[in-house]
Amino acid sequence: MPPPADIVKVAIEWPGAFPKLMEIDQVSCITKPLFLALFFFSQNRNNIKNGSILRLTTSAAQMAQQLHERIQSSSMDMKLDALKDLANSSRDITFAQEFINLDGISLLTQMVESGTDFGDLLSFTLTAFVELMDHGIVSWDTFSVAFIKKIASYVCKAAMDTAVLQRSLAILESMVLNSQDLYQKVAQEITIGQLIPHLQGTDQDIQTYTIAVINALFLKAPEEKRQEMAHILAQKQLRSIILSNVIRSNKPINDEMAHQLYVLQVLTFNLLEDRMMTKMDPQDQAQRDIIFELRRIAFDVECDSNNSGSIEKRKSMYTRDYKKLGFINHVNPAVDFTQIPPGMLALDNMLYFARHHQDAYIRIVLENSSREDKHECPFGRSSIELTKMLCEILKVGELPSENCHDFHPMFFTHDRSFEEFFCICIQLLNKTWKEMRATSEDFNKVMQVVKEQITRALTIKPNSLDQFKSRLQNLSYTEILKLRQSERMNQEDFQSRPILELREKIQPEIMELIKQQRLNRLCEGTCFRKISSRRRQDKFWYCRLSPNHKVLHYGDLEESPQGEVPHDSLQDKLPVADIKAVVTGKDCPHMKEKGALKQNKELLELAFSVLYESDEYLNFIAPDKHEYCVWTDGLNALLGKEMTSEFTRSDMDTLLNMEMKLRLLDLENIQIPEVPPPIPKEPSNYDFVYDCN
């Protein structure tokens, strides 16, 4: 066992000595005072070597007692050195406990309240105070109003030492967060207007602590005062100041600043919670007037007093207009807003959109009201569900997370950022609806795609709402499908060479399975509607493939069948061997006829024809996209051609991935090598035998 003096010398000379010495078995016999001394030396190596500490202490209690005496010294130099040592030593909880037991916190607060210390003396005093309070040993409720006033005065002074200002802001934040009583006292001593100038400086640490104090005041304020505080923040142009001096400054934003901006963003959006959880009162005339305003802007109609005609006629007119506006309840749309969330917040967003983006609002409403009922994108229902979705994405109503840094710069670029966010997203929803050619049954599917578009656009943290809008323009429905496909293919499980080879090996099996399914569907047959160039007629015909896959049977029907039509009832036949080609879209003869271009564009996408003999055609209009893909795939399979429809690609991906997962189930958590193992060398001779018995 080396003598204690040698151990102390090593601890002083070598910064990493303390943790290394603690790993030595022999050191287990070191006494507690020596152990504490070693820790103190390792933390204060420079001060010891510079002579700041005049004599070695052997315990935290003795060190605390000495510093307690030295910080009361009449010598300013000795007092300054003692406060430096205290600021450093206070990080250790053992020392902190001993110093607090000596009523050290009261001594520090008295020194602050006296107002006799300035500059470094005050800075180290406040630093030691912050470090001691961070251990949570002393309650924050024990401090006097005089101490709070003194700390607040340091924050309010125009020219204050940076270190003192930083510590004072940290103390105010902790007071507000840890005591409701102190929140009241701090709120009386300091105003938002006094904090704003600190954000206009260039010191990011000061800016961070300033925003932290604002967040603390915001978080602890009673609910009825938060809206008032938000109004004051808007008047003081806090958002603009943060945007220009923090977010768009030349300095990169550190993690702590990012966290405080995230907290401010969450607290700002949480102001919407009250409206989000407020149901509409169908009997409240003021609230009903908002719905009347939506109707007036959309259809350019006057108020009730100017309407002529009977009450029944006006009711009928209202019902018709509310249906066009996309409300679920056409008679009394106020009922739609009784669902919480999003409650009245959805109606607020709709009114904002109608007033501030009037052209886009009118275009969306009129565009959808002119479509078939099943293809219209209901503006009212969409707005309600979209508002609910945006609240979920932004976590409206949830307290900020302790470790999150996920703030979005674009929300600091507009005073009504949530409403503008909604306006961009409702136009995106309408665009995506058209791209997906959705019907009312596809509503939830469209909402899922829109949510994915929004979340993907937010991941790049756009600097402005315009950038966010531009990003959404690039995230069309087609692009989302490509991204999904790419992500599935880029999974680690599917990238190794053996896996890719296995995929290639089983792909023909899957394609044959899809081919058999398509031919089986052709054998079941499909009812097609006859369409003339002039108008749609309710005449039908049926076509099906024979079980031996050699003949197409078809014929006219009087009405749409309830099930399969037997071969015997279909008068006409077309041998598969006579089929020359299959053409689609504009190449079909019945799409080239006079007047055909006036047909709905959807018909072009559902049209295909079978060419047989020299110039004879059998023309089809599929009832939907699925049947179109089934028949074109099946006919191409009969002709020995490749099946190229989007349904074939989708089925291939689904079935191939399922088959791969099933085959690899037994290899879960087993590392598959990139290259096959080497083949062993041939033996020198083959004069050996294995006796199985």
Describe this structure in words.
This protein is an alpha+beta fold. It has 32 helices and seven strands. It has helices spanning 4-13, 17-21, 32-43, 45-49, 60-70, 76-89, 93-101, 104-114, 119-133, 145-156, 162-178, 180-189, 192-199, 204-220, 223-235, 238-247, 255-269, 273-276, 285-299, 311-324, 344-356, 358-369, 379-393, 417-435, 443-458, 465-474, 477-489, 497-524, 589-592, 601-606, 625-638, 646-663, and strands at residues 526-531, 536-545, 551-557, 572-575, 579-584, 607-612, 616-621. The radius of gyration is 38 Å and the shape is flat. The protein starts with a helix and ends in a 30-residue tail after the last helix.
Q: Can you give keywords for this protein?
A:
three-stranded antiparallel beta sheet; 57% helix; alpha+beta; four-stranded antiparallel beta sheet; disordered N terminus; 693 residues; apoptosis; ELMO_domain-containing
